[in-house]
Glycine--tRNA ligase (Deinococcus soli), 504 residues
Amino acid sequence: MPATSMEELVSLCKRRGFIFQGSEIYGGLQGFYDYGPLGVELKNNIKAAWWRTNVYERDDMEGLDASIIMHRQVLRHSGHEATFSDPMVDNKKNNKRYRLDHLVKDQKADVIAKVAEAMGQSAENFPAVVAALNANPAQASEALRAAGVRDPFSGEVGEWTEPKPFNMMFKTTIGPVADDESYGYLRPETAQGIFTNFKNVVDSTSRRLPFGIAQIGKAFRNEITPRNFIFRVRELEQMEIEFFCTPGTDEDWHEKWLEARLSWWEAQGVPRSKIEILDVPKEDLAHYSKRTYDLMYDYPTLGHEEIEGIANRSDYDLGSHTKNQSELGLVARVEENLDSIAKLTIPHPETNKPVVPFVIEPSAGVDRAMLAVLSEAFTKETLENGNERIVLKLKPHLAPIKVAVIPLARNKAELVDLARSIKNDLQKLGLGRILLEDSGNIGKAYRRHDEVGTPYCVTVDFDTVGKGEDASLTDTVTIRDRDTLAQERVKISDLSSYLQAKLR
Ligand SMILES: Nc1ncnc2c1ncn2[C@@H]1O[C@H](COP(=O)(O)OP(=O)(O)OP(=O)(O)O)[C@@H](O)[C@H]1O
């Protein structure tokens, strides 16, 4: 059974070294997390699985790693300077600041109903309530107060300001002079680096439509209320694809990508039955989107929340960043661009005339992926002897440690030396991290490796070195299967092929 609460996951992640609060020894920094020894392995494995499926196993994709700090013109013409903002409100009583929609959503049902009524909306249509609050700031602050909207920090009814937009981009100075011109932004999504490199990739690879560019990397959002562990953070990582296709084929590609992405999640242990597909209503679509599917995973404690967005972005992005916009017959409404020096077109596959392609964008968060994968793998079992065990039933390709090699006694040099040499041989197979686990107590070692999801433990005991009761067991080791708890005796000489077959 998957995790039933976020607390279970938070506690496991801290206890076993997956995830720590950022800057913890100075009291922590809200919205920033550090990935520990096992977290970095799991994260790398998720990213590698995504890259393998979306780049290596397809014939229509290229990869990219663009820089994080971007020219302000990029984020001006992408629309982020003007629109990448969330409405926020302050509580005048304690100066705490909240994202308006989060604040209202977390109130009791009767309070939400009162806010909705005051704004002339139905509580069932929550986005419409938020839209009405944003559109009528003065009425909104009165509605929040009259409905008795409580401050989540103090628990008391707040004295709420009018909502105002808050741009979520991190701005930074570039170079030694801090003047009005010398600033850039930390990218709020990786996508823009793909659009600005579109021409470079086309020119250097001779790609023709349809094709896509994949990128994994950090993005930064100054979220007003970061919360729910790594679900909403200020420094996040994204796995994004911009898939360029001929206008008119976009709807078809949108469906294909939806299917491809669901099947990828399934292969990572996140079943379709736990993902709701939200066909985002027209009135809630981002300004660039023709249609968007949000994949809503059923997170413990939070319920269904977005794990990935798959948007049909039309020709908005390349159309916004290209020069000569007026000659290109753009479908999307874009702001005038007199700064770009590149024409972002590609020959139409049938007419050979220059065309600005449409874009399908599957965009997933690595941190949210990690939370979902951990949540699905988390299992509490009662054993035959009545003891309870916690086991992370991660898919082997995602497990941070693939095999733990354990000498039965840590003070017996011949056991430890042989275990080390087995570990070194297995490490050379390139399966991922193999750990020499010589902490001594075999029971504790098994428990630890269950909890961190190690699929196999290999134990070197006295029989292995010919000092046990059964001479026929010399040069064999015990392999313990994490999920079935079955133990098998295998010859050391067969170990590599045995584990390769199980883990590849
Ligand atoms: N603050 C964040 N922390 C962690 N992951 C995030 C954050 N914002 C976005 N993501 C991830 O990046 C993906 C694509 O970003 P997108 O801009 O579509 O998110 P969003 O619609 O702004 O998300 P939300 O509505 O939850 O704020 C999301 O599906 C999510 O997995």
Remarks:
- The pocket of adenosine-5'-triphosphate is lined by residues 189, 221, 223, 232-233, 236, 238, 306-309, 363-365, 367-368 (CB under 6 Å).
- Residues 320 and 336 are 8 Å apart (CA to CA).
- The mean pLDDT is 95.
- The longest strand covers residues 235-245.
